[in-house]
Write a structure and sequence with these properties.
The complex is a heterotrimer of chains A (437), B (382) and C (257).
Chain A lengths: L11 H17 L6 E5 L5 H4 L6 E5 H10 L1 H14 L7 H12 L13 E6 L4 H11 L6 E5 L14 H22 L5 H23 L10 H13 L4 H20 L9 E6 L8 H7 L3 E6 H5 L4 E4 L4 E4 L10 H13 L2 H4 L4 H14 L4 E7 L3 H4 L2 H10 L4 E6 L9 H14 L8
Parallel strand pairs in A: 1-2, 1-3, 3-4, 5-6, 5-9, 9-10
Antiparallel strand pairs in A: 7-8
Chain B lengths: L2 H8 L1 H12 L2 E5 L6 H6 L2 E5 L20 H11 L8 E5 L3 H13 L5 E4 L10 H20 L5 H23 L10 H13 L2 H15 L10 E7 L5 H8 L1 H4 L4 E7 L4 H4 L10 H11 L13 H11 L4 E7 L3 H16 L4 E6 L5 H21 L1
Parallel strand pairs in B: 1-2, 1-3, 3-4, 5-6, 5-7, 7-8
Helix pairs in contact in B: 1-8, 4-5, 6-13, 7-8, 7-9, 8-10, 10-16
Chain C lengths: L1 E7 L3 E8 L2 E9 L4 H16 L8 E5 L11 E2 L2 H12 L5 E5 L4 E6 L5 E6 L7 H11 L4 H10 L11 H13 L4 H23 L5 E4 L6 H11 L13 H13 L1
Parallel strand pairs in C: 1-4, 4-5, 6-9
Antiparallel strand pairs in C: 1-2, 2-3, 6-7, 7-8
Classes of the chains: A alpha/beta (437), B alpha/beta (382), C alpha/beta (257).
């Protein structure tokens, strides 16, 4: 019995097209003399845009997730990585990625296109190693630049955004520009960089605004759909096309809220989740819907790329305001972008789990969540670091929390029936009832 | 005198507690070797490394997800079980994700009143790392001064540098003896030594190390050195395992001696000294920590450990290398396939063992023995 | 009102018959590959034990890993809810319940009404406490019933890997070769398994009183190890603890009827 009106998202076909084009562009980059770049979804890709309008990117985490969608292919990649000698408890995105190189297949058809250079950042133990190894596996002739962003937390978790921390990141960016000029032979275009820098900030700012709209009851977006939308920020933050897409999406979601359009028509209760989902098993979100449950999102979907500010007096999370003006010099752009990125919500727990607990609690309270479901993700140390303390902290703050173990990118580590049993136990304990189809 | 190291290793808590009573100084426990001990010594605060106890425990599961390494959980258990209640503070120099959870959970649940997370930079191959670290040290010093109740001067820093350099030199001199045909010091004894240095005041450690150095010149061990083995890997103080393989020769037809290691309870910890030619002591300390043998989590874009490992292997004339990896240790897991290939390409056979808090002595003995036998076979072929 | 509760577990299928919330019959059959037969036969055994016929049964409640196969069940209750109810019924002051079986280990935090507040289920590392003890009995060439009492004979404490049964098995092999006394090895095994279960219990908090159900509760050695790991004097175990979940399932249905 439907409680709310529902409609599919109008921008869905465009989203699919944009994403497919992104992976096609990477494949075809050389055909028009363009450059291929590989790096992490957290890489400061905007900096590479100063090389020209024909720099095409692939980011490792979304690519790893895409591999995980295709079970047989992923199994091939993971086996190849294991046979090479990589342990099974390493990040499963990485193993899929390395496997893809070893096997020589692209998850989007054909052989794997080789990057011209690798450009990434490092905050979890594995980021730098990921691309170090990828470059080695590609034959050892793919140059690599890594920017260290592990410099400490941002306000309010630290008294201030220390200038020397921003400088360290900004200086590495400046050094990388010189490095890129050398290895590509191209002259750097600062104007393109300023544009890209501004795209990055408006895209990640707009994404946060979209997530804010999910405070509405009923929620206009459900997390399973959100995964297909947040990914653009993970594919390439500096893309003008993606920034414009988010602006369109924002309008559409505002409209849905105005008209009371629900993502889940029988929304009875709301949850938030944590860490990446088991990508090969997103149907668990549909399973939760059979209990009338909508997942409104998570610090992961909101703050992996979205930029927010935590207000500790109000226990609230709000989109970080855009800087007043666009950057006018290379140094200013580097500092601005460094400062912007260092305030990323999903960077803070690297320094203390408490920071993440506070932000998660802010989401639970302000987005009206009845419970929290945490994925103890064996596939990602970076986002699971401190997760057990998050659970304790959230329980202390009066939330109802359940956990399940799994792996975002390795289906051998996820047990669907037993996870569904856990959901049943938990949701029943909340007083919910499974709804008849 | 060499037994003193084992005594300190086994009685670390007694030593550390009595130290407080004797000197009136404070003690800060640290979790990772990227902690700048020089600065703590400058403040007359004793920095002691916290290692696990190799006992199974059931107290950390609510705090650390089981897929993080057994070492970090063993370390946290020491805190949760009250073994370190005498500490005045805890600190960590940022490196791997696993161990930092021991620090953050300890900070949350067993906070001794002072704690500090130092964002030790990861891009150690960049010229930007040192200036950044110097600024971070300035923030750290402000906090240390609060704990110490006194200002730290450049001279204090120089004293801290001096004592740490001296103990590093003393240990390296002792390591020279391990290059001999029949080393007068076993791997087990060397491990006791380097770990004892974690748990003691360097000024008290130094004279003992110097005395041992003197003794080693004429010490002869009544044992067959067997194969010369190098240990490479994660944090490791598995004395039980090292002792077991070094006494294999008494029971079996092959034996070995661990002549050198590349892990962070030994050479990665102490090999590199502070350059005292650098005028500014804070900058000198920062350079030392940036340029030291890196933890694999910081060893990129170049994998510099390969050359360092090879040099140690050659200098110590190693027959084979045993890669000891803490279960679930990501930084090492990312490097190991390349280290193994590199060593084997350079004529050094390798064997891989995965460690947990307790060691399956029997099966590990069998496997190690089998590896040592292959080294025998290698020689015969040529 | 006569209600039957059936718990189709990984190793054994247990059935109980309750009349007005009093247990009047019990039956247990090895589950094997054919769950449906095991379900039928265990119920049959319970009815025989109670001295009644199938037609006397008003309702059937099902639980356990194989509960979907309990075709005649009027209601299916998840094991956590069942164990919570059973513990509350057995001991109203119970606040922590643990159920350790062949494969599964569970811990539940309950309130004074037997309502589930929080729960933990053993994860990948550490499944199979009961099965592991059985396998080690074979390795030690001891009877399973002897394994538990042996624990009480030993006064040694040999540390053994408590996270991974595979690692632990390696260590047992090592101890056997080193000619360690069987009793000491048995104690080490039980302590390691108990440590796993206690780790899990600590996730939901150790709140008295503590009730243990499930087949492994019949192992006095395991119970001893558990008490030592928890650092408590008393763990409450109902008679026939293996039937705990089945009883709980029947009670849940009785309450709802």
């Amino acid at each position: 019995m439907a409680q709310y009106p529902t409609e599919p998202l109008k921008c869905w076909p465009k989203a699919k097209e944009l994403r497919n084009k992104f992976y096609e562009n990477y494949k075809q980059a050389h055909e028009k003399g363009g450059i291929r770049c590989m790096g992490s979804a957290w890489a400061l890709d905007a900096v590479t845009m100063g090389l020209g309008r024909d720099v095409y990117w692939i980011t490792g985490e979304p690519y790893g997730a895409s591999c995980a969608f295709d079970s047989p292919l992923s199994a091939d990649f993971l086996t190849a990585a294991e046979n090479f000698g990589f342990s099974r408890d390493l990040c499963s995105y990485m193993r899929n990625y390395w496997g893809s190189i070893i096997v020589g297949k692209y998850a989007f058809g054909g052989p794997l296109p080789k990057a011209d250079f690798a450009y990434t950042q490092h905050i979890c133990c594995s980021h730098g190693k990921w691309y170090q190894n990828a470059c080695e596996l590609e034959g050892g002739d793919v140059p690599l630049y890594v920017i260290d962003v592990g410099v400490g937390a941002c306000p309010p978790f630290e008294p201030e955004m220390y200038k020397h921390r921003v400088k360290y990141v900004a200086d590495q960016m400046l050094d990388s520009i010189e490095w890129m000029e050398k290895i590509t032979g191209r002259t750097y275009n600062d104007e393109l960089f300023f544009e890209a820098c501004w795209n990055d900030m408006r895209l990640t700012h707009t994404w946060a605004k979209i997530c804010m709209l999910n405070r509405a009851v009923p929620a206009p977006l459900d997390e399973k759909s959100i995964y297909s939308l947040y990914v653009f920020a993970a594919l390439q933050k500096s893309s003008a096309a993606f920034a414009e897409f988010y602006e369109e999406l924002l309008e559409e979601v505002e409209d849905r809220v105005k008209r009371g359009i629900a993502a889940v028509e029988n929304e009875q209760a709301r949850v938030m989740t944590d860490t990446q989902p088991p990508w090969g098993f997103l149907k668990i979100y549909r399973y939760l819907e059979t209990w009338g449950l909508v997942s409104i999102g998570s610090l992961y979907t909101f703050g992996l790329e979205g930029m927010w500010v935590y207000d500790e007096d109000r226990n609230d999370l709000r989109p970080r305001p855009m800087p007043p003006e666009k950057p006018k010099s290379r140094e200013e752009a580097c500092r601005m972008l460094a400062d912007w990125h260092l305030s990323k919500p999903e960077y803070q727990h690297f320094y203390s789990p408490e920071y993440k607990t506070e932000m998660m609690d802010a989401i639970a309270k302000n987005w009206r969540c009845d419970a929290i479901i945490m994925h103890y993700n064996r596939g990602c140390e970076g986002l699971s670091v401190g997760i057990a303390e998050n659970r304790l902290g959230l329980l202390e703050r009066g939330n109802k929390v359940m956990t399940y173990e799994g792996n975002m990118g390795d289906e051998t580590e996820f047990d669907l029936p037993s996870t569904e049993t856990r959901f049943d136990i938990f949701l029943e304990s909340l007083g919910l009832k499974k709804q008849e189809a | 005198m060499i037994e003193k190291f084992q005594e300190w290793y086994e009685n670390r808590h007694e030593y550390q507690e009595k130290y407080k009573e004797r000197t009136g100084n404070k003690i800060v426990g640290y979790f990772c070797t990227y902690t700048p001990e020089e600065i703590f010594y400058a403040a007359d605060i004793l920095p002691v490394r916290i290692l696990g106890s190799h006992e199974p425990q059931d107290v950390t599961e609510p705090h650390i997800f089981g897929m993080f390494c057994p070492f970090c959980r063993d370390v946290l258990a020491q805190g949760l079980k009250g073994k370190y209640d005498y500490l005045d503070g805890i600190t960590i120099g940022q490196s791997c994700l696993h161990l930092r959870q021991a620090f953050t959970s300890w900070d949350l649940h067993k906070n001794p009143g002072w704690s500090y997370f130092l964002p030790m930079p990861n891009h150690v191959q960049s010229k930007r790392a040192v200036p950044f670290l110097v600024e971070e040290y300035k923030l750290l010093i402000k906090k240390i001064e609060e704990l110490a109740g006194k200002r730290i001067s450049d001279d204090d820093l120089r004293q801290g540098i001096d004592i740490m350099n001296k103990v590093r030199q003393a240990m390296k001199e002792i390591y020279e003896f391990r290059k001999e045909e029949n080393p007068p010091i076993t791997g087990t004894e060397a491990m006791y030594m380097t770990c004892a240095q974690f748990f003691t005041d360097a000024t008290e450690f130094l004279p003992v190390a110097k005395e041992v150095n003197r003794e080693l010149a004429s010490r002869r061990l009544d044992r067959d050195p067997g194969k010369r083995i190098m240990l490479i890997g994660s944090e490791n103080d598995d004395i039980e395992y090292i002792n077991m393989i070094e006494t294999l020769g008494e029971r079996e037809s092959v034996g070995c001696t661990v002549v050198v290691e590349e892990h962070c309870t030994t050479t990665r910890y102490f090999w590199d000294e502070v350059d005292t030619d650098i005028d500014d002591p804070l900058r000198a300390i920062a350079e030392r920590y940036v340029l030291r043998t890196p933890c694999p989590s910081k060893d990129w874009p170049q994998r510099t450990r390969l050359q360092r490992i090879l040099k140690l292997a050659k200098d110590f004339r190693v027959d084979g290398a045993i890669i000891i990896q803490q279960k679930f240790c990501d930084p090492h897991e990312a490097d190991i396939p390349f280290i193994r290939r590199f060593l084997e390409d350079n004529g050094i056979p390798t064997y891989f063992l995965e460690f947990d808090v307790t060691v399956a002595s029997g099966p590990f003995a069998v496997r190690t023995e089998a590896f040592l036998e292959t080294l025998e076979a290698e020689e015969d072929l040529f | 009102m006569i209600i039957a509760g059936i718990d189709c577990g990984a190793k054994n299928t247990k059935a109980v018959v309750l009349r007005d919330n009093k247990i009047i019959g019990k039956g247990m059959i090895l589950t094997g590959f054919d769950q449906i037969t095991a379900i039928r036969e265990s119920l049959h055994a319970a009815l025989k034990d109670a001295g009644i016929d199938a037609k006397d049964v008003d309702k059937i409640s099902g639980t356990g890993a194989g509960m979907e196969e309990i075709r005649d069940a009027d209601v299916r209750v998840n094991e956590v809810r069942a164990m919570a109810k059973a513990a509350n019924f057995f001991l109203p002051s119970a606040r922590t319940v643990t159920d350790v079986g062949a494969e599964m280990g569970r811990a539940v935090k309950i309130d004074e009404n037997g309502k589930v507040i929080d729960f933990a289920i053993n994860e990948k590392c550490a499944a199979g406490a009961g099965a592991f003890i059985e396998a080690m009995a074979r390795a030690l060439e001891a009877k399973l019933e002897e394994m538990g009492p042996m624990v009480l004979e030993s006064d040694k404490s040999i540390p053994m890997n408590a996270q991974c049964a595979i690692f632990a098995e390696s260590e047992v092999v090592g101890l056997i070769h080193a000619r360690t006394a069987k009793a000491d090895i048995s104690k080490a095994i039980h302590d390691a398994m108990a440590s796993r279960i206690v780790s899990m219990i600590r996730r939901i908090g150790v709140n008295k009183d503590i009730v243990m159900i499930g087949g492994v509760a019949l192992n006095p050695g395991f119970v001893d190890s558990l008490k030592r790991e928890l650092e408590i004097d008393k763990v409450y175990i109902p008679s026939d603890p293996a039937f705990g979940a089945a009883v709980g399932a029947a009670l849940v249905l009785a309450e709802e009827t």
